[in-house]
Amino acid sequence: MPNDAPPPIHSTKDALDALAGILGGALPGSIAAADDPAAALLSDPDVASAVSGRLRGSGSGAGNDSLCRWLYDAFRSNVPELQLAVLRFVPTLAGVYLCRAVSRKPLAGFEAVFLVLYAHAAAQRGAGEAETVSLPNLANPSPYHDAKVPPKAKPAELDVAVLSPPLEPHGTVRATRRARIVGAVLQLYHGKLAHMPLSSKMDFCEFCVAWAGTHSKLDGADKQRLPPARDAAGGGAEKWRRVPLPWELFQPVLQIVAHCLLGPTGSDELKAQAARAAECLYWRATETVDARAVLATRSLVRLSQMVEEPIPEPSFSGAIENMAELEAMRANILNSKN
Amino acid sequence: MASDPDDGGEMPPAEATSPAEAVSDPSAEAEAEVTAPEDEPVKASGGSVVPAAGAESSHPEGLSLNYEEARALLGRLEFQKGNVEVALRVFDGIDLQAAIQQFQPSLSDKTPSKKGRTKSELPSSVSQNNPASLVLEAIYLKSLSLQKLGKSTEAANQCKSVLDSVESIFQNGTPDIEQKLQETVNKSVELLPEAWKHAGSYQEALASYRRALLSPWNLDDECRTRIQKRYASFLLYSNIDWSPPSMAQQVEGCFVPKNNVEEALLLLMIVLRNWYQGKTHWDPSVMEHLTYALSLCGEPLVLAKQLEEVLPGIYPRTERWATLALCYYVAGQKDIALNFLRKSLNKLENPNDILALLLAAKICSKDHHISSEGVEYARRVIALAESSDSHLKSVGLHFLGTCLGNKSKVVSSDYQRSLLQTETLKSLTESISLNRYNADLIFDMGVEYAEQRNMNAALRCAKEFIEATGGSVSKGWRLLALVLSAQQRFLEAEVATDAALDETAKLDQGSLLRVKAKLKVAQSSPMEAVEAYRALLALVQAQKNSSASCKNAIEKAKALKSYSAATLHAEGYMHQARDQTKDALAAYVNAFSTELEHVPSKVAIGAMLSKQGPRFLPAARCFLSDALRVEPTNRMAWLYLGKVHRSDGRISDAADCFQAAVMLEESDPVESFSSLS
User: Fold this and answer.
1) Which family does the record assign (chain A) (predicted)?
2) Exposure pattern of A126-147 as b/e (b: 16+ CB <10 Å)?
3) Which has the closest alpha carbon to A298: B645, B194, B288?
């Protein structure tokens, strides 16, 4: 089986069948029966933990890893929901890959998946152009405010900031460009965060803490403590070690942590994990006093401790006349069926 | 006018009482406008008349409330007491649509006609218990109750109905409506997006935020600011599928945001401006959001400008200076940053700010001339972090080591130099013992060992660095190759360089190719060296071509800068080979004007001058000594200096110099270690 090329994936059904074959068992019935099987696949916790467990296991990511092959094919099928299901595993992929890549093990399987995701990210930007942001200038009016524009004056020139530099095409992953490639993939993941299930984001925060390699003061524990692997199935969980974090990697990581921390995720557990991750990243930034990283992470840590201003409660002023009337009517209203 | 007919028969049978209508006050004109004339259809819930002026004081005896009002008031009472569920049950019976229908004619009559009169009459003629506002308030409270019970989608729908109703009633925008109704509108506008957010309908939330801010609701400043802040935060952190706001009319020169970050930045800046203008209170989170967003975009100067504009008294000034220093440092303006830090770290201000001290030490560590200052800052960090924080202490020791190392290069006395070198190694070693994993630290140690000619230790550090970074940082490979070459292990150095080239992307290979070429030269394989140089030239050419299409001119300049002193030096070398002495001299002078400490050009000038004749010997000696001050291990400089001494007749000095040159030849790398930093 490993020597035959697996059949290409063209539809969700193909993907599900192939995955069942790889995981060695039928997928939960709820997925096939659902209206949108790919969406069900995205959020199913059992499949997710099975796949994650495989990815985290030793020996994964090699050139002949069938699960990596599946991820690769599924993404290239161009079915958007399937692509989301693949993206869901980006945190685990990135986590395992970066930690192992530092030890320079052969990881062709992972690299292939990353390259296809990278190519997609570059294509999405229209041939890999830089992502830019024009900085607003309040001298120009906008939908949200008025500004006095003198007649016949040209609008004030806008500075353009580069949010993410251009992406050149890459056929292989060279060590010096690894951070760039993984960073671009993380940005792709960041773009789809609204669709990602909670467990995916929790995985990400967990890996962040490992990548930073520093300890959070919130823990109060010793430096060497690493978070236990999610599925400590195959005993002796691998220690996820710190990785080099140049800005091209640090920036998307920070964006994702910011979403987990301050976005409308609705999960306190995620917020707590993200707060830990942000703090670890802050200490990592101070290790080399990387000013840009220090500014951004410090703000995030401060924001995590600030409480948002609530909507003021309604005020009730003035006495109500006709109290007697109301009391009389009250019983009737409350007892009546509407 | 008499009150309207009793609606008893039209009420649901369960109702025991049949509320009559409120009797309008004898204010004939108001009534004429206000009262629904008899021929207008009267709805089932009672054609209640908007009470005219002074209704409170002129209530007749008997029941004056209709069904809707009663429910509204009761519900409000329950809500006030905190019985949210009971309140909900009460509110559930209110039929908003019906209520709106009947209010519509009466209220919308007012707005177009008789403006002057109507406006002045409005506040007094529409009292607090105006049924329209009561019902709307009731629906708002219903939605708030649902929200409190966690039923966000229903809450959102109810809230939306309030706003839709108001919009349909007041089609030309809300004029000076009475205070209670305005308050309800404000609160509904604020609640709706939050309800959608909690319900997970982010597209609806986006639309409702925009509706809140772009439609003319006549919100008060504080309310609007709160909405703007929440919206900015939503835009920055939610990663929704963004779409641009639709513009009713395109104003010339209007800034329409093209992505979520732009919209968020715009809103945050507007909030800040409102604060300057005194329209709202200070909220530190706004500046933090801005800091985050602008740091991510790499626009520290814009951030610095915003920080500088914050009025005094908000931040302690040392905190402001320290943050500004960070911004200016990111922007590359190290001198300005250092000045801010000096002010802030003055013993009268805030001398114990560890982060500021570390940044100051870092800035000083990059420049040999201020290394003593850096030493002092680093020592202060170490003293402060002594007991509490080994992480920060390690960082302090790292910078201390670097500054001491730099200092050792500029002192004139040998004794001082060796003392400083020992200190440097001591600091760096202690730093590593506190934090084994800091890759930059390992690298700096390696370079220091190499410069002090402790090659074995340097080799160990180089290997450890490559392991820690997974071979992804090319300077680690270069250090390894250079150390091996200094140990005369050229073949191994070549193997290392080839391994590095495999791991490096094309555009980053320049410096490695240079090292490879020099290795080939050292092994006396000139043809292969030529190959390597050719590859390097092709790369430089490719980089020049790609940077021609690069939009950012600064990037282009930076890409070329690293080659300029070297290329000028090469140019000079070419001229020298052709015996064009003047041109050669000119090129060399240009080279070291580009880069003040460019040792090879100084050595070359010294060498050339030494051949020009006895008049030029002092000048030659000056250049060569200068070169040796920066790089005492440059054997060519020693060689030429020896020759100068010999020509001048100082034989013993010459002998010393030649001996130094010979000793250095045995442990010379193909490229100086200072090229690594």
Assistant:
1) Belongs to the Hyccin family.
2) eebeebbbbbbbeebbbbbbeb
3) B288
Per-residue pLDDT band for A154 (boundaries 50, 70, 90) equals low
User: How does pLDDT run across B151-202, given as a tens digit for each residue?
Assistant: 888 888 888 888 888 887 776 655 667 777 888 888 888 899 998 988 888 8
Average pLDDT, integer, range B652-673: 83
Candidates B190, B299, B438; nearest CB to A135: B299
Judging contacts by C-beta atoms under 8 Å, the chain A residues touching residue B302 are 135, 159, 161
Nearest to A205 by CA among A237, A253, A247, A245: A253
Helix (H, G, I), strand (E, B) or coil at A161: strand
* Cα-Cα end-to-end distance for chain B: 95
Largest CA distance in chain A: 87
C-alpha B162/C-alpha B151 separation (Å) is 17
Separation CA A2–CA A280 (nearest Å): 41
Indicate the fold that domain B565-675 takes in CATH: 1.25.40
ipTM: 0.88
B238 and A264 Cβ atoms separated by less than 8 Å: yes
Q: Which chain B positions have a beta carbon within 8 Å of A307's beta carbon?
A: none
Residue type, A63: G
Number of neighbours of residue B255 by Cβ within 10 angstroms: 25
Spatial separation of the C-alpha atoms in residues B2 and B531, rounded to whole Å: 109
- Residue B151 is classified by DSSP as -
Helices A178-191, A247-262: crossing angle, 10 deg rounding: 20
Q: CA-CA distance, A9 to A212, in Å (whole number)? A: 37
Nearest one of A331, A315, A318 to B129, comparing CA atoms: A318
Write down the pLDDT at residue B10: 41
Contacts of A336 in chain B (CB under 8 A): 12, 14-15, 93
Q: How many angstroms away from the CA of B346 is the closest CA of chain A? A: 21
On whether the CB atoms of residues A123 and B194 are closer than 8 A, the answer is: no
Contact A193, A201 (CB under 8 A): yes
Token digits for B518?
């020099």
* Residue A90 tokens, joined: 């980006």
User: Which part of chain B has CATH 1.25.40.10?
Assistant: 565-675
Mean pLDDT of all residues in A322-336: 68
Question: Looking at the partner chain, which of A163, A286, A322 has a beta carbon nearest the beta carbon of B64?
Answer: A322
pLDDT digits (tens, 9 = 90+) for A219-269: 554 444 444 433 333 333 567 788 889 999 999 999 999 999 998 888 889
B287, B306 contact by CB (below 8 A):
yes
**Does the CB of A177 have a partner CB in chain B at under 8 Å?**
yes
8 Å CB contact of A311 and B362: no
Cα–Cα distance for residue pair B67/B455, rounded to 1 Å = 95
